[in-house]
Amino acid sequence: MMTDEEAQARAQNCARDGNLIEAGWVMTVLSGMPDGVPETELTPLRAAFFAGAKHMLAVMAGAQRRDNLDTQKVANDLRAELARFRDEIGPKDGPKDVH
């Protein structure tokens, strides 16, 4: 498992290279996962994270075709889900907001 500093550097590198969803995953692990989660548990969570990202891209593409994409509604929904997730597992030290 990476240290927080290594994960933050990886997230910055991912974002710089245009891998924004991977950067989001790294920051999600930093901000929402308790320390010491084994890789065997992170793997299915990562798959679920990327499935969610794929779903959001499909939602956004469909809304864009209909010309009714409300990005604020999407952002509010994501923030609410993240807050519920944090409430369920408890926050760890680290960034408190995932963009």
Describe the structure.
The protein has one domain (4-89). It has 99 residues and is mostly helical. It has helices at residues 4-16, 20-32, 39-66, 71-89. 74% of the residues lie in helices and 0% in strands. The protein has four helices and no strands. The mean pLDDT is 79. It is globular, with a radius of gyration of 14 Å. Helix 1 (4-16) runs antiparallel to helix 2.
- Percent of sequence in beta strands: under 5%
What is the CA–CA distance across the termini?
A: 22 Å
Question: Number of helical segments?
Answer: 4
Broad structural category: mainly alpha
**What do the pLDDT scores average to?**
79
Largest sheet entry: none
Q: Based on Cα principal axes, name the global outline.
A: globular
Strand runs, count: 0
Supply the number of structural domains: 1
Low-confidence stretches: none
Tell me the quaternary state: single chain
> Portion of residues in helices?
over 70%
Order of helices and strands: HHHH
Q: What Rg, in angstroms, do the CA atoms define?
A: 14 Å
Please describe the topology of this protein.
Elements: H1 4-16, H2 20-32, H3 39-66, H4 71-89
Could you provide a short overview of the structure?
With about 100 residues, the chain is mainly α. It is about 75% helix and about 0% strand.
Notable features of this structure?
99 residues, mainly alpha, 0% strand, single chain
